[in-house]
Amino acid sequence: MKKEINQTAMNFIITVSCLVIATALAFLFFYFVPKNSGNIALIYILALVIIVRFTEGYLPGLISSVIAVICVNLFFTYPYFALNFTLTGYPITFLEMLAVTLITSTTTTNMKQQAKIIAERDKLLSEAEKEKMRANLLRAVSHDLRTPLTGIIGASASYLENSTTLAEEEKSAIVTHIQEDAHWLLNMVENLLSVTRIYSQSTKLKKTDESVEEVVSAAMSRLKIRIPHAPVTVSVPDDLLIIPMDAILIEQVLFNLLENAIIHSQSVKPIICYVTDSNSEVTFHVKDFGIGIPEERLHQIFDGAPYIGSAESDSNKGMGIGLSICKTIITAHNGIINAHNHENGAEFYFSLPKEEVSK
Amino acid sequence: MTPKNQLLLIEDERNICNFIMTTLKSNDYKVTDAPNAKTGLSLAASQCPDLILLDLGLPDMDGIEVIRQIRGWSNVPILVISARTQEKEKVSALDAGADDYITKPFGTSELMARIRSALRRSSSGSNQLSPAQLQYTAGDLIIDYEKHIIMIHGEIVHFTQIEYKILTFLSQNAGRVITYDSLISHVWGPFADSNNRILRVNMANIRRKLENNPADPQYIFTEIGIGYRMRDNEIP
Fold this sequence. Notes:
Chain A is of the alpha+beta class.
């Protein structure tokens, strides 16, 4: 309601000021070049086009065309400062100006409406996209959370119920299993927290200049606590690289990729983690020498959809969410994340721009 | 036999409290627990513990405020328990006077190591000429504070003035995290620019002289968003 009043006021102001300026210009013209009165009509037509372009609806254009016609008649045709609608050809001028106004106002109003429709459609699409991402995430989370929780509840129940009959090794196997699942759950929660970190800061990341080797080494120390004796060969370039990023999030991405590689490659060959440097970006690689990624999975591996269907679907638990969160984080950094198979396994890599991309 | 160290645990979460209590008791520490900041503060005053374990997320008071109040009258080491992603919270806890922090969830070995190293620092501080104040040794690295010498694999390695200053400060606080800001103000003075790029560059140079693989360091560890932690001094 308030917006409509504002709009009307705006229309009024634009209309009046355009007409006043046009009239003033016309007077100047009339005094300095009195012989050529054809330009005066043109000045008014120009004013009309401008009014129609910058106001909403048909009304301002119509009203101002009537006013323009009256002004021309009143000020610039003989007898001056008096209305005389009986002049020869005058109805033609009137009709011409009216027609020009009508046609321009219809076209521009159409154009404006179409632009509005397109903008709305884009908004709906991006909303739908976000909604889809959220739904995917939620589905993946609930699917993935249930598995380890069932494991933990079952294992602890069997421990409590059979504590007298179980052998020591069986007991420690059960507790180890519980610990594994709990670790996995924790990692999932850390990942989800990373996402809230992106969205809570009003969609703008808080980036600071960070040294690449420190981020890599932090991910490595966390990995060593999580999986002691993890077979990883890691290297960074000799030159110190400092690039803008949210280091906690990038460390999380690197940790996810390394952990995934160790758990899912089904190989004991060391994983290679290295950093390459080009003119505009820095790329982090995590390369394993295991079973690789199934081709049909490769194109949607970052979508967050739970992977169901393969015999070892259970061993793939959680990979979906972790990777979709990696993608969210890297995209928020204006970077690129990708995966492909090489001859002897799989490789994940992501690049971050060296300079802040100016919007 | 040395008397048992008296610890105070301020933690509101029952399960975590139980687990820490069990761990500490089985490692021969005497532990008292407080479920909230108010009880914690009065126990800290009445029992004079050797170390305080403090969870930052308490129901009745901000953890930072608890640290400030304790620091008002005591230098007892405070070990903060905190979640991983809240690096700002950790930095402000350290700035308020906490000695160190441990990130939830932690293993028992990690917790015991932090407690031992904090207790050692506080006891060596009272003793004027403890060996740890003359020399730092960890793995193949030896720093001799008297002779101003740093040796790796038995060979003397040259460090610049600034690098030596950074290394001595970190190694004299070995086992404990040093925030970027406190490191910068120690090395470059209190009015130094808080832009830590120059610190990063110096750290990168130190790492290249010190570590076999800068991406997988053995001596100086990065705590993302907070600062650096140097490996524990092996000299008691």
